[in-house]
Amino acid sequence: MSNEQDFSGLIQALASENKRFEAAEKLIDAGSSAVEPLVSALKFDNWRVRGNAAWTLGEIGDARAVNGLVEALDDSVPEVRATAGRALVNIGRPSIGPLLKLIEKRDCRAKGLVSCILSCLGVDEAQRSIPKPA
């Protein structure tokens, strides 16, 4: 699959019970060239597309997906939030900074999930509460 390849058909197939695995495999095979279209798919109306896009991004493991996946932690569908969290764990260390910023927000609905993700990434409670320099 070339960089100019149109990923829209594969991304739409992420909503299909019959085609989602094949579509995800092709997107994973495309690697970094599929990251931007998949990050955009995290905002689609269909929650299955959002969840499967998050899963696929986690399998690709590209740090450029971190900000979109962090935003997906606030998704209205619990399955999408959980899948985005798993993807952030798969991506690893690049996820830590944005997650620490998110957990500092008073209105963060996903604080429990973010704490769990940070724990999976090896960030303990003490490290999360270290005051940041002004």
Verbal overview:
The protein is globular, with a radius of gyration of 15 Å. It has a domain at 8-95: Leucine-rich Repeat Variant, CATH 1.25.10. The longest helix is centred in the middle third of the chain and has 14 residues, at 47-60. By secondary structure, the protein is mostly helical. It has helices spanning 8-13, 20-30, 35-41, 47-60, 66-72, 78-91, 96-104, 111-120, 125-128.
Gist of the model:
With 134 residues, the protein is mainly α.
What keyword list fits this structure?
134 residues; mainly alpha; Leucine-rich Repeat Variant; 9 helices; 61% helix; 0% strand
**Can you give the mean pLDDT?**
89
Helix content: 55-70%
Beta fraction of the residues? under 5%
Shape, per Cα inertia axes: globular
Compressed to H and E, one letter per element, the order equals: HHHHHHHHH
Layout of helices and strands:
Blueprint: H1 8-13, H2 20-30, H3 35-41, H4 47-60, H5 66-72, H6 78-91, H7 96-104, H8 111-120, H9 125-128
Helix pairs in contact: 2-4, 3-4, 4-6, 5-6, 6-8, 7-8
